[in-house]
Specification:
The chain has 574 residues and is α+β, with helices and mostly antiparallel strands. It folds into 4 domains: 184 residues, Nucleotidyltransferase, domain 5 (2-Layer Sandwich), CATH 3.30.420; 167 residues, ATPase, nucleotide binding domain (Nucleotidyltransferase, domain 5, 2-Layer Sandwich); 123 residues, Substrate Binding Domain Of DNAk, Chain A, domain 1; 89 residues, Substrate Binding Domain Of Dnak, Chain:A, Domain 2. It has 14 helices and 30 strands. The protein has a 7-stranded mixed sheet with strand order 20-19-14-15-16-21-24. Strands 3, 4, 5, 6, 12 and 13 form a 6-stranded mixed sheet that branches. The protein has a 4-stranded antiparallel sheet with strand order 23-22-26-27, with no helix packed on it. A hairpin with a 5-residue loop joins strand 22 and strand 23. Helix 2 crosses helix 3, helix 5 crosses helix 6 and helix 12 packs antiparallel against helix 13. It is elongated, with a radius of gyration of 30 Å. The N and C termini lie far apart (68 Å).
Length: 574
Amino acid sequence: MYNKSHGKEINAVFTVGIDLGTTVSVVSYIDGDGAPVAVPIGGGITTPSVVNYSGKAAIVGREAVYKMDADSTVFSAKRSMGTESKFCGRNSIEISADILSYLKKNAEENIGKKIDAAVITVPAHFSDSQRSATRHAASMAGIRVLRLINEPTAAAIAFGLDKKKDGVFAVYDFGGGTFDFSVLRLMNGVFQVLATGGDNYLGGDDIDDAILDYNARLHGLNFAMENERIPGKLVAKFLKEQLKDLREVSKDYVYKNKNYEFKLTEDILRSVSCDFVQKSLKIADQVLQDARLDAAKLNGVVMVGGMTKLKLIKEEVQKHFQVKIFDDINPEEAVAFGAAIYADSIVRKNMLLIDVVPLTLGVETLGGGVDKIIHRSTPIPTVEKREYTTYQNNQTGIKFHIVQGERPIADECRSLANFELIEIPPMQAGMARVVVEFSVDINGLLSVKAHERETGIQQTVVVDPSSGLSSDEIASMLRKAEANRKEDSIHTRNITVKIESERMIKFWRTIIAEIPLDSQKIANDELECLENALKAELYQDVIVHKQKLESIFGPFLDEIINSRLGGKIVAELT
């Protein structure tokens, strides 16, 4: 089917892009001219991601904000996406589902079409559980998800970077509740995210709090309970949005039946915002370091998120990076625009988009180490395999502990899942061949499959942890990994030394009777010393005693092996 006036094929499937934001959400679609259009819902392009549960049915958006019922109103539920936290008796999945249902219903009424599917955006470093929770919320709302894509990546699409010459671009996304910074390489129309980072608890909400705190101190106000802050915070948000090019704005605020004049100037805003902006730039510098780039290599920075409307933020970003700033699209609409373009491209243009794994994925090994299987910043979708075996005779099962993080020690990483491959046929240690496959799909969700080669027995787990991981925790994990790099290296070496020594002790005990008597006494003494050093975790001593034992047994190994092979040397048997 074609639109004759434009000569373009019309999709049989009607798709939209949804920016499910922490503080506001936006729905966009591609119109008949092939341009992205934001759908006005409830009186504006942006819909507050706010839900009120004071009645039988959920009230969403502006009406929820206007009710001013702090005890029954939920703000910024996205910050707890994928966790067990509950608000008004509901978890973040249920709250997000109510927001998505509202967006879908009202968008369909406004556009006059049924929404068949959507691309939904998520923060670039949302964990597996947070992405899974987002899909679950969409499913509850009756929305078929074509893809989950990172918010900064969607913004890059909206600004048309895919149509520009090859280069490296950064996306600075300072939203109402989260901050993301991503570095993307464009080659032949294909996006690849080189590195990404952010903070799930850094956004315009923090600046609103700071404006409120400034005015509260000015008037000597002390809020007894957190929910008492909400009306004042809304006034602070209003002042911030009204300031723009004005020198000063003010608004009356009523607290305990008394009127107070809250005010805001550019100097006050700059003062209370400074720490938050600088924090965002430090995160950006770390991401550039992860991408092994300096700012001079960037071809531009895309400005996304409501906070980038502020003149002071644009100025600080320009001063910090000294490159071209892309800000010609409403930053609150850009992410939804990109999602709509990408949704349309899936059925129309088959555009290629590459995202990355935010944290390293691996398996706990014997001794508590980590075998890193898919490394941080690996482009997705991706599949990696490892082969493991049994370590005891007649072992019929292998337990797998899946972890996420940059530390080489399992206990210092985040636990994702545990499962066991059972019914492995009894055989000698080391004979079984178990292949473990890690697969991260286009939405960043992880599935792990283990199967034994000979029997075909297999077990699969899709990682969906009960609790999520916030972005500031991810940043903390990365900082700890860097800070503990030297200690972790020593610990990893010690694990290797311990496992190898324990294995060799068993071997040496089985052959000690086959070496000369004078060497047996020396070997027994050294074996006892080695075992005592292992118990005391004196790994330098372990290394010394292990080396001594290797020199004692070494000269006799060939003779012992030939004897056990019936006098035939290895070359004759191959």
